[in-house]
Amino acid sequence: MTVDPPIRLADPADADEIAAMSREFIEHGLPWTWRPGRVLKAILNPETNVAVIRAERGLVAFGIMEYLESDAYLVLLAVRAESRRRGFGSALLEWLEASASVAGAQRIRLDARRDNAAARTFYNEHGYHEVAINRGRYSDGVDGIRLEKWLRPANAR
């Protein structure tokens, strides 16, 4: 899927806005751990992709994906509330999945709050399967749900 404005890798100047969006849309009600310094480290890390969609009004969406030995881990993905249901999240996820595939990842894993039905539905609609419940995963006592999507069979090299 192509979006306008296009998806691009984040640069250091994006760190503050990404951190603010993480706090507002992902870490609400939790301790703020994705502060600008941590986001900047992710942007500069060669084992991590931080992708963004920017418009004239600022940051629309972002995603952070870490590359592990044979898997990729989708750390964060967020779209501004006023830009949701317009394809930005889907396009960003597909871009990150394609990047993970090119990097050789066999599967992508992610965690979502058990009480976040919208996120769980979004990922289910994109081929992710719920594989485990992590009781008390989040600091507010909410359970986490581990989701994964296989990009190629486990025995493929």
From TrEMBL:
Pfam families: Acetyltransf_1. Keywords: Acyltransferase, Transferase. It comes from Ramlibacter henchirensis. The keyword Transferase applies. Residues 5-152 form the N-acetyltransferase domain. Gene3D superfamilies: 3.40.630.30. GO terms for molecular function: acyltransferase activity, transferring groups other than amino-acyl groups. This is GNAT family N-acetyltransferase. It comes from the Bacteria.
